[in-house]
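Journal club side-thread
Mid-discussion, someone asked how the predicted structure for our own chain would compare to the paper's figures. Pasting it here so we can look after the session.
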Amino acid sequence: MEKLIHSRSTIASLIFNGKMFHLLNPWHIEVDTNQETITIRKRNPFLIGFDEQIVSFRYIRSIMIDEHLFGADIHVKVVGGRASAYCISKSDARRIKNTLLEYNTTKRGRGIIFA
């Protein structure tokens, strides 16, 4: 089961949630079940280059989705860190959550834990 999910902050969500400063540098989240990684990318404030955070989701502690009127924030806590993406669409946040939960059920013997 190989899945690659990519999502980015939506313009409407950024505007209505008061994060208009981030219109030029929205958050991007990518979930790769083949590599077992979550990648968060965001253009840095100087608009030169990207800041990138890559975490392995082999050991997930919690998944939190904070829904707003427009969009949602997703926070994935893993052993040793946390990955957060802001103002993505609600459907993409649910799809990422369902993908991670589905992946968790298929790899039950490998020790993925929810605590």
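Post-session note: The longest strand covers residues 60-67.
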